[in-house]
Here is the input.
Amino acid sequence: AQKVTQTQTSISVMEKTTVTMDCVYETQDSSYFLFWYKQTASGEIVFLIRQDSYKKENATVGHYSLNFQKPKSSIGLIITATQIEDSAVYFCAMREGSSNTNKVVFGTGTRLQVLP
Amino acid sequence: GPKVLQIPSHQIIDMGQMVTLNCDPVSNHLYFYWYKQILGQQMEFLVNFYNGKVMEKSKLFKDQFSVERPDGSYFTLKIQPTALEDSAVYFCASSPQGSSAETLYFGSGTRLTVL
Here is the structure.
């Protein structure tokens, strides 16, 4: 069964620094897709970035990038030049490629606080 | 961007009563999901739905839960009867075709309080 684990409950960083949030996953599938979502204080959940398991290059979107370490089943989210508005809860998620139900499983989330 | 609408944003109900949570998915999306979140923590998968059928449901999707989307209108989650442990924020999400690479589009959630 697929599983996503985020061990960091909460992180605090100073503004304009770089932060990495960890995520490890479990799957028996050879093809899968990994996602990071952000939940703001208002509760809104938005998609940030995706990594396809068959791609070796780390995905990058704006000041978000991923550190995909397939042998370790790890997909870290890196935020560079953090801003106050990056303060939120970040969720890692996975969908298996061969799934015929398209279930998406989420981790427990990491709360990021960016301090001025 | 595309919007998923959830109505109402907050619902308070007495234990044992029935409640229906409504979701208006993104137009033309075909896959629909419900997630349960307690205390701003983990997003727990409840169920997903496609072409009028439940595709997969988790153990959290108790017998008292049901979903439907009659005639392409709201995608609904019904709980009958409600229990205290059903208090949570319920998020609806949709995706276009349901392919593995697609992202989910989330609504803003319905906070359900069972008294």
About this structure: The CA atoms of residues 8 and 104 of chain B lie 20 Å apart. The radius of gyration of chain B is 13 Å. DSSP finds no helices and eleven strands in chain B. The mean pLDDT of chain B is 93.
